[in-house]
Specification:
Trna Endonuclease, Chain: A, domain 1, 14 strands, six-stranded mixed beta sheet, Rossmann fold, alpha/beta, five-stranded parallel beta sheet, globular
């Protein structure tokens, strides 16, 4: 049966409809410093706020004097565009020029839904159009895609709200003296919610946060994993995610993961697990770190895996505090250092190591236990003797202080202060 092509009229309708509302959507502005003439690919997990960054950019351009008729916004999650093929992309340009005579600026949301999108995006850039695209698949940042795009696009990783952004969204102003007194108490109350349920923008105003997160996870699970990759063993995939959540603080080999899944009576090989983990990374659900101390072969098969948002991790675990703390540390460091962050595990265990910065970070929920303190400090001192550190830190839930051991200064920082200080604290 011949595939039915799209109708140009559909695109005229979509362009017109979107122009009516996109310029006036209320926004919580996020940091967005873009090159005036750059083309961009925004990539991140579903509901991280990619669409709102497009809306924000539209509103910036309108404020600079661009006309609403110059804006073409198309969301490829629109049910009217189901079944769209790469050959239909030209209809968008034709539809626009049948309505207006200007030079449009294109905003394409979830464009990865259409196979072959990268060739079209490259052609638009070659024709000197300005283009902004979003997607929920990390493959959009892969070398293969970059090759097709021919270096004509800049990529931006989009994450759910930072704690700073979360506070802005709930209407809390961080004024001077926020680290002390009543203001500090207020911030810590908000932080507890953020710590447990994460920073998805739409979640902020929901009371039933677990229900909302469950709904989001199910969409990601079915649309971005099961359907996209035609996974037949749905139970194995579900168990793989759960076991990854339970193993957040531990280096996890593919064989171990496979055995954990098999222990429940579900057959699953290590090679299948490898595929599943790759799919989870591609859907932007997982952040995976290599062991700095391991050999190349081990780097590929033994990693630490973290979830891109604390709320998603919280869905799968009981007594979550320790796991959530380390997960949030991983997110915070990854946003700043990307692939430059590792863990260190050879005779000593250090949670996070950034060799280019000489930075080592331990995550420890409580430091009141003497043996816990000694273990964390000893590991940092040992790493410092191998690779001299510029900065050593222990991030806790609420403990604070400074100590020195064998010539190494170690800061003990409460996580809420650390994430608020952001870059200043990490430098």
């Amino acid at each position: 049966m011949k595939k039915q092509s799209m109708d140009k009229e559909i695109f005229r309708t979509i362009i017109s409809e979107n122009q009516e509302y996109i310029g006036s959507i209320p926004l919580v502005e996020r940091p967005l410093d873009l090159e005036e003439y750059g083309n961009y690919v925004f990539v991140g997990v579903r509901q991280a706020g990619k669409s709102y960054l497009l809306y924000q950019r539209v509103q910036q351009l309108l404020a600079e004097g661009k006309l609403l008729e110059d804006i073409v916004y198309v969301n490829f999650d629109d049910e009217r565009l189901q079944g769209m093929a790469a050959t239909d992309f030209d209809l968008i340009i034709q539809a626009y020029h049948s309505m207006y005579s200007g030079q449009p600026i294109f905003f394409f949301d979830e464009i990865q839904n259409v196979d072959g999108w990268a060739n079209f995006a490259r052609r638009l850039a070659n024709l000197k159009y300005r283009v902004y695209v979003t997607g929920s698949n990390a493959k959009m940042l892969s070398r293969d895609i970059e090759t097709v795009l021919g270096g004509r696009y800049l990529s931006v990783n989009v994450f759910p709200y930072s704690f700073n952004e979360y506070l802005t969204a709930v209407g809390v102003n961080i004024a001077g003296g926020w680290q002390y007194g009543r203001k500090a108490n207020e911030l810590q109350r908000h932080f507890r919610t953020y710590f447990e349920w994460g920073g998805f923008p739409e979640l902020v105003n929901f009371r039933e946060k677990r229900i909302w997160l469950n709904s989001l996870y199910n969409r990601i699970f079915f649309n971005d994993l099961i359907v996209r990759h035609k996974i037949k063993n749905e139970d194995a995939m579900r168990l793989c995610v759960r076991r990854l959540a339970e193993s957040v603080m531990q280096p996890c080999s593919l064989n171990r993961l496979s055995n954990l899944v098999k222990s429940t009576g579900v057959r699953c090989s290590a090679s299948t697990i490898m595929e599943y983990v790759r799919y989870l990374q591609e859907s932007c659900l997982l952040i995976s770190l290599d062991n700095y101390a391991s050999k190349f072969t081990e780097k590929e098969t033994v990693k630490k895996h973290y979830f891109v948002d604390n709320g998603l991790l919280h869905l799968f675990i009981n007594n979550p505090d320790t796991l959530l703390l380390e997960n949030l540390c991983a997110i915070t460091l990854y946003k700043k250092y990307g692939c430059g962050i590792y863990y260190f595990n050879r005779n000593i265990e250090v949670d996070f190591y950034v060799p280019d910065e000489g930075l080592a970070v331990q995550a420890s929920y409580r430091m009141s236990d003497e043996s816990t303190l000694e273990r964390e400090v000893k590991a940092l001192v040992a790493l410092n003797s191998l690779y001299p550190l510029k900065k050593a830190m222990i991030v806790t839930y609420e403990d604070e202080g400074v100590m020195e051991r064998d010539g190494l200064k170690i800061e003990v920082v409460p996580v809420w202060k650390w994430v608020l200080n952001g870059e200043k604290q990490l430098k």
